[in-house]
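Deliverable D5.2: sample structural annotation.
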Amino acid sequence: MTQEVLDFLDKNVGFLATKGTCGNPRVRPMQSPLFFEGKLYSCTSKAKGIYKHIQNFANVELSAFDGKETWIRIRAKAVFEDNLKVKEAMFEKYEVVRNIYKTPENPEFAVFYFENPSVKIQSFSGRDEVIKG
C-alpha cells in the first residue's frame, strides 16, 4: 500500500460495496481506514448487515473519490480478525469509534483487513494505474 493511497483514504470518505445476504449489492460509507503492521484495516459492528454480508461473501470493493477528479478502488477479500492491538489503534485514531464502542474489548466491535488488495487509481485527466498490495 503506497503512502499516496493511505493519505487519500484518510482525506476522503470511502464507500464499501458488499454482496448482501439477499444477493443484491450493498454500498455504505466507510471512514475508518487504518494501516497497521502492513495491512489495511477497517471496522464495523457485529450487529450490522455488513458483518453478515462479509461472513457470507468476503469479496469487497472500497471506492473513494476526492470530489474533484481522482478516485481509488480497492478490491480484496475482507478477513475479520479478533486483534486487540488493531482495535486499540482504531480507538487511538478515530474518536467516533471510541464514542460508539466505548472500549476496544466491546464484543460488538469487529475489525477486518483487506487481504491481497488490488488498488486502482484513476482520474478524469487520464490516470489509470494498478498497484498490488
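Annotation notes: The first helix runs from residue 3 to 11. The chain has a mean pLDDT of 95.
The annotation will be released with the project's public dataset once the embargo ends.
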